Amino acid sequence: MSPFTKFFRxxxxxxxxxxxxxxxxxxxxxxxxxxxxxxxxxxxxxTLAEVGLTEATLRVSHRDSISSWTLxxxxxxxxxxxxxxxxxxxxxxxxxxxxxxxxxxxxxxxVDTTVKEKSNDLRVTTEAxxxxxxxxxxxxxxxxxxxxxxxxxxIRTDPSxxxxxxxxxxxxxxxxxxxxxxxxxxxSLERIPYRxxxxxxxxxxxxxxxxxxxxxWFAGNGVLRWDGSQYIPMPLPSDVWGAYWINKIWGTxxxxxxxxxxxxSIAHYNGSTWRKIESGTTLPIRxxxxxMKEDGSx
Length: 298
Prior knowledge:
Blueprint: E1 5-10, E2 20-25, E3 41-51, E4 55-62, E5 68-75, E6 78-86, E7 89-95, E8 102-111, E9 114-119, E10 122-125, E11 136-141, E12 148-154, E13 162-168, E14 177-182, E15 187-190, E16 194-196, E17 199-201, E18 207-212, E19 215-219, E20 223-226, E21 231-233, E22 246-253, E23 256-261, E24 266-269, E25 274-277, E26 287-290
Parallel strand pairs: 3-9
Antiparallel strand pairs: 1-11, 2-6, 2-26, 3-4, 4-7, 5-6, 5-8, 8-9, 8-10, 12-13, 13-14, 14-15, 16-17, 18-19, 19-20, 20-21, 22-23, 23-24, 24-25
């Protein structure tokens, strides 16, 4: 690992369209999944849901009714991810692609390391930049080898405000920072406290979403909301969420928020109460993502 946590920021923001993706991701060190042998039945359908400059969202559908199955996604003949899919349909996002580049995707269903079914081949071409008037900048946050960034949020109404969360340390300090704020000219590190039994404690923040400069939600070892003047704890009832980390938060407003985490945990907040959503799995759910319309609505 590099001695610095690097933050890459491109001064160009593409438009967003609506989609929602939810999948339980199982990352393993198993050998790469081999191509399907001849004669394997084509029961999986791959279609393109959305494509951008550097990522593509694919819709995966299985022909049969199926509750849980293992899927290997292949790009240009190489396996890029292995996932446990809940239900017969899901959306998968492949990021880190090159602009103006064509990729060929396929998928297979795995049962006990054996390829049982395959999909069609799908050719996807990423978009070309609409302008060359942007540049990359690399910023270093933290200075210890253990510093890590997990998520970032940009204020739509003020792109000069950026919030990056993680687990950050400065050289020579034992103090833990969990938030870095970009104000348009530089970064500042901050410490957001969680509260437990009336006492403050500091843990990593793993995810953040911002609906405005005075409405920012943070999560990890609990949920916190910034209202412009203070960080407000948003307690999760024990019958909704156990002692599990929150891996991702997403929503369209502070009255429509979803969180996912370890042990297959999913919960929804409607502006006043939290509700548990059964996932049907005990695998950690790593990803929950979506996009809003141009007017900011869901």
